[in-house]
Amino acid sequence: MQQISLLLASLPDGILLGFVYGVAAMGLTLIWGVMNVINLSHGPIIALGMFGTYLIFFKLGLNPYLGLFLVAPLGLLLGILIYVVAVHRVINAPHLSSLLATFSVNMIIIGLGTAAFTTSPYNVDFNMGSVSLGSTTLLGTRLIAALAAVIATGSLYLFLYRTRPGKYIRAVANNRSAAELMGIPSSRILALSFGLGTMLAAISGALIATFFPFSILSGGGYELKSFVIGVLGGLGNPVGALIGGLTLGVLEAVIPAFMETSWVPVIEFGLFILVLLVRPNGLFGAKQ
Amino acid sequence: MKNFQKYIGIIIPLLVIAGLLLYPAITGKAAARETAFTILKAIALASSLNILLGYTGYVSFGHIVFFGFGGYVGFYLLSTQGMSLWISILAGGLSSGILAFLLGKAILRLRGAYFALATIGVNEAMRAFINNFDLFGGPTGITLNFKAYLAYGGAAKALEMSFYVVGALAVLAIILSYIIRTSKFGLGLLAIRENEDAAEVMGVFAPDAKTWAYVLSAIIPGMIGVLFFFKNGNVEPHDAFPLHASIELLVMVMLGGQGTVLGPILGAFAYQGMRGYLVTSDFFKDIQLSVSGALLLIIVLFIPAGAIGWLRQRNAILRRVLA
Q1: Which residues in chain B have their CB less than 8 angstroms from residue A115's CB?
Q2: Which of A276, B5, B106, B153 is paired with A36 by a 20 to 30 Å CA distance?
Q3: Which domains does chain B have, with CATH numbers?
Q4: C-beta separation of B323 from B175 below 8 A
Q5: How far apart are CA A258 and CA A6, in angstroms?
Q6: What confidence tens digit (pLDDT) does each residue in A153-207 have?
Q7: Domain limits at A232?
Q8: Model ipTM?
Q9: Whole-number Å distance between alpha carbons of B46 and B314
Q10: In this complex, do A227 and B120 lie within 8 Å of one another by their Cβ atoms?
Q11: How many helices (H) and strands (E) does chain B have?
């Protein structure tokens, strides 16, 4: 009985968090789906998004949610820059090259970030009140973050399916050489896709910063979560990423009701390996 | 002379190790031995990784899991069961090999980036599991009773001995790497690297060959793990499975040249040397990670074959000399 009340208290929180995880994973999975590159600089970009919220809130005195409109375009530009400098040359090379190229970007960002912010934890004290639903209390910041995550997903969907550049992205993901023959500037589209992926990472970081403490190194944990989610939902499948994010959020809420919290990562990564082995295209059937 | 030319591919690497082993005795400084220990450890680990990465073409992002797991098993036998260091080292290597065999049967079916992701998952799952495993001390790990060093003539003697043992393990790793490189088995691995499907058609039984390459690349890291934790006197999950150390190993192999015997040695040397310089330099110490990252990026983008690979491509004589 006690477990059930614990579950009722933590489950809604887990679901709300799951939406935000989903956005982070969507950034990773979009890049993989379009160009078969695993972006190992994903974590530090999430961390940069967190510091974006911090700087906007404390230095500019803006509301963090308004700040999203600043973090998002900066994330997009950073991604395009990373693509042009580090990824474009190795896009057709073996996987090791693109993995190491994006990892070197990871090292560069962490190094500069450590010099600028040190590795000590930061906190954005931002209160949006809370909503009580029976025995559970939902924090306002998490509700808004989940809402923002849903809006970001919806906009991405509309962009990919209703606009011309979005259709270009899907065409390039489908078959790059054929898309090029149809007159689509594939290099520019790849850069745009990479930028969109990092933009989503930065947005998720900016949202997470409103309710968890963070440091320049905390992106790494969310990067690993994004891998798990991406594989659960099927790498290359944005909607699957959202479902995978919700799954992970629910797992994180449910597991502590039955065993110690420290078992959560064992189960997460065990599930990750299992899904990779049994259904590498994801539980929710990615398009191949 | 003819024999000399035939075996020069192994003679040069062994001379490098001999030089490293003599270096502390020549300079007579204790700090020199620490530096040489770190480089020898890196050489042994990078050469082992090279068997899988360079010869077989499978990118393992979590190779340090064998270092940590073997180290944990051996260190447990050493500290809690009171076994001798030698048996513990063998047990560490054996347990890593068995782990690699079982894992290899499962995850080597995955190719490319999927395999790389799975190895990251294995490392993280293992770290999280050991964190919860009470027999191995959970999150606080295991500490060695100081008395254990007495059997090896006290702490100072034990430290000196660990240095020569790591040298021996590095030699073992290099000889293993050389034997595989020049054997028929190694040729099969190289064929898998170039084109796995074609290799199978030509009669290489890829699943077995890959599994054995994985096992052979896991044994020495497990042994090094035991020795390293013996030297440190304790082991914690955090130190045993650092994901960034896995990636440092990849960098070393890439830097020197993947798929060559000398490459990982040179890469380990260069990377540790550069890191030592950057960390201590006044100008770079705050942004040393960024500088390493930028250098790595330049190598990946412009010299993907690594230093030895690049030299081999340029010059026919070097191609014969550098294995």
Answers
A1: 286-287, 290
A2: B106
A3: 2-321 (1.10.3470)
A4: no
A5: 10
A6: 999 999 999 999 999 999 999 899 999 999 999 999 999 999 999 999 999 999 9
A7: 2-114+136-278
A8: 0.85
A9: 24
A10: yes
A11: 16, 2
Which residues in chain B touch residue A38, judged by CB atoms under 8 angstroms apart?
113, 116-117
Distance CA A62, CA A191 (A): 30
Output the CA–CA distances (angstroms, integers) from residue A273 to A101, A282, B141, B218, B292, in the order listed.
Answer: 24, 11, 25, 19, 31
Q: Which residue has the tokens 């934890």?
A: A121
Judged against a pLDDT cut of 70, whether residue A288 lies above it is answered with no
Could you give the C-alpha distances from A234 to A167, B17, B77, B113, in angstroms and in order? Answer: 21, 46, 42, 14
Alpha carbons A278 and A244: distance in angstroms, whole number: 16
Provide the residue type at A243 as one letter: I
Q: What DSSP designation does A122 have?
A: B
Q: How far apart are CA A170 and CA A174, in angstroms?
A: 6
> With contact defined as beta carbons under 8 Å apart, do A175 and A63 qualify?
no
**A214/A171 Cα distance (integer angstroms):** 38
Q: What is the CATH number of the domain that holds A19?
A: 1.10.3470
- Which residues on chain A are in Cβ contact (under 8 Å) with B296? 100, 103-104, 107
**Contacts of residue B297 in chain A, CB cutoff 8 Å?**
85-86, 101, 104-105, 108
Minimal-distance CA residue of chain A relative to B120? A224
Closest residue in B to A39 (Cα–Cα)? B113
Locus of tokens 């990472």: A201
In a domain, A126, yes or no: no
End-to-end CA distance of chain A: 44
Altogether, the residues listed in chain B come to a count of 323
Chain A contact present for B135, CB below 8 A: no
**Type of residue at B154:** G
- The answer as to whether A59 is a domain residue is yes
B22–chain A Cβ distance below 8 A for any pair:
no
Q: How far apart are CA B294 and CA B271, in angstroms?
A: 13
Contact list, A276 vs chain B (CB under 8 Å): 107, 110, 114, 117-118, 121
Q: Do the chains contact at B290 and A277, CB–CB below 8 Å?
A: no
Of A100, A107, A270, the CB nearest to B125: A270
Q: If you average pLDDT over residues B267-274, what whole number do you get? A: 88
Number of domains present in the structure of chain A = 1
A155 domain residue, yes or no? yes
Identity of the residue in A99, A260, A273 whose CB atom sits nearest the CB atom of B116: A99
